[in-house]
Amino acid sequence: DIQMTQSPSSLSAYEGDRATITCRASQNISSYLNWYQQKPGKAPKLLIYAASTLQSEVPSRFSGSGSGTDFTLTISSLQPEDFATYYCQHSYSTLWTFGQGTKVEIK
Amino acid sequence: QVQLQESGPGLVKPSETLSLTCTVSGGSISSYYWSWIRQPAGKGLEWIGRIFSSGSTNYKSSLKSRVTMSVDTSKNQFSLKLVSVTAADTAVYYCARVAITMVWGGFALPFYTMDVWGQGTTVTVSS
Fold first, then answer.
1. Tens digits of per-residue pLDDT, A59-105?
2. pLDDT tens across B91-124, in order?
3. Of A34, A43, A94, the CB nearest to B119
4. Neighbouring C-alpha atoms within 13 Å toward the C-beta of B84
5. Cβ–Cβ of A95/B58 closer than 8 Å?
6. CB distance B46–A87 less than 8 Å?
7. CB A55 within 8 A of CB A49
């Protein structure tokens, strides 16, 4: 199975800061990369698919980039509701994998 | 609006079988893939597998020998069975709908996402 590695595992930032999370695949996955946001006690929510396409109703401060093995999720200006854990997930093959998650905390 | 609801025993004994059902409401189960995902307390998400409404399946390699998924289109439900459970199978179990979105970049490519999720159900493996 393809392995997905996120970094950092956690980051602390102020409201209004720019946050960047990276995700690396163990092999070329083209643009078959999704990002999810999860808040405590809640199910994950789809943010971005195809590496850079925003899911409907997701704020434009979220953006995704990358292809091949290296991908980035950027939050341009952190809002209080953005403090959560973020996961990447590939859908390149028939067997999918999540990254281990990145927790974004308030500084 | 499609909604998913997981159901099943919250406590399973070691070596026994974990059985969960996901009921789909507000839409048809047909012509979609459906997934199961789990999350141990304080840990990350683990994709378990997916099933198409026709019954074809794909399972995570490390769980393949213990997992069976099935679908009942007449009840608009799909199910997960995990045999020979241990404490390591204790987790919140989520079901999710898999959407296929065509993205055009010279030609159309299908992209798969888990776009609708159930609220999750906690399963504890303990004697």
1. 999 999 999 999 999 999 999 999 999 999 999 999 999 999 999 99
2. 999 999 999 998 887 778 899 999 999 999 999 9
3. A43
4. 5
5. yes
6. no
7. yes
